[in-house]
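Retro notes
What went well: the complex prediction finally ran end to end.
Inputs used:
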Amino acid sequence: MSDPALAFRQLSYAYPDGTAALRSVSFALAPGERVGLVGPNGAGKSTLLLHAVGLLPARGAVLVGGLDPDRVPREVRQQVGLLFQNPDDQLFLPTVAEDVAFGPLNLGLSAADVEQRVATALAQVGLTGLGAKLPQHLSLGQRRRAALATVLAMGCQTLVLDEPTANLDPGGRRQLLALLTQLPGALLLATHDLEAVLQLCPRVVVLRAGEVVADGETAALLADPELMQRCELEVPWPLRR
Amino acid sequence: MSWPLWAQLLAIAACGAAGLTLTRSLFAADATRAQLGLEVSRGDSLLHRTPAVCKLLGLLALAVSAALLPPAGLSVPGALVLLLLVAARLPLRAVAARAAELLPLALIVAVGALLRGDPVLFVATLGRALITVAAVVALTLSTPQPEILRAARRLGLPAPLVEIIALLLRYLVVVLDEANRLALGFSLRAVGPRDLRLARPLGRVIGALAVRSLERGERVHQAMLARGYDGTWPALQRAPAPSVAAWLGCGLFLSPLLAALSYWR
């Protein structure tokens, strides 16, 4: 059997002030599998995503395609792309195109390859022709898509996304979900948007106070009113009887 | 001739008030991006089309000549800048607004000459500042930021410096938006008397802004690491080399510089 695209094994993490953020989290994504990560605010979703690319020191293990992010961060970051919740944290260069090119240039690709990747990524997110724009001149929805383009241009097999639909207008959300549906790789989607999870991910992991409280089929778990209430979530509309 | 003490104090107070107004306007809830010189006028004049490399060199030449020429010679760079502003049909209101933001600083410097009883030097200092400010405004109003940065790289400004300026320009807007939100939240609830008692909570607001900016810096760094950043930036794009015609146009701005140099020889 091939290595999982992304695996967390007994992963624990405490913030420097001692607050436990993750307690012995274990689950894995098969290559190409789409998994939703849901839970109340402060459950540890964003912290878990930072671990997926080795941005926080891990107690326990994180494995990306069998590789340890602490040991080979460069290789891991070629395999896993992380989309931050706030696009302004991700877009830091003067123009959108330069920002999308940042990752591929770090990979050491040739100028022609980089240009090709930038064009493809911008086309994927529907921002063709806006490469010369300054990030601050884009709407939030456009910035979110530009941030996604910066991750797509890395050519990662696995994407971990932090609240990609937050603050988007319904049209922008629909376009984003349509795009995510088309992407072939594995996907870990941390969000409060349970309808999006229902639409995109056959499987969901429920996190509460840093612990995995449920892991299973999305439609079954999200339809469980007792579980949803315990985790300060709501049964999404399509599943209500 | 020296000024009486009361006049000196008055002048210093006026400069202080001007400085305060400037600072306030930067942090006021309605501070717009245009005030900070972050927007570019759309236009298709010769100035808009001139390569940024030439414009940057021209600006440098103008600024140096404005600083070196004797008061009587300032009319040459002054006329050149005025010619530029008019020929490029830049919105003069925007030019005036930006100049007004920067001039209080010049006033603070110039008032020293006035206090020493040298009105000619006072006017000359203000004139030098005005010429330089107007030239800067002509550059920033006619050139998109990324082009200025690429031109700076082309002219050999060290990469780390250009990177710092690029980050500064990018996040100035973001931090300003954050400051506006904080200021709005503050003013909506600061309904009591508006006096010195507000200084303490206002200090906390500024502290909160500093903390949030630091945290943002941390997240930006993480986002860079997540995309394979290893401490070196892949080069920012460099501007292409300008044409001969552009260089010849640029030479026009070197004439006051040459005049200045010959004066000091």
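What we learned: The mean pLDDT of chain A is 92.
What to try next: split runs per interface for comparison.
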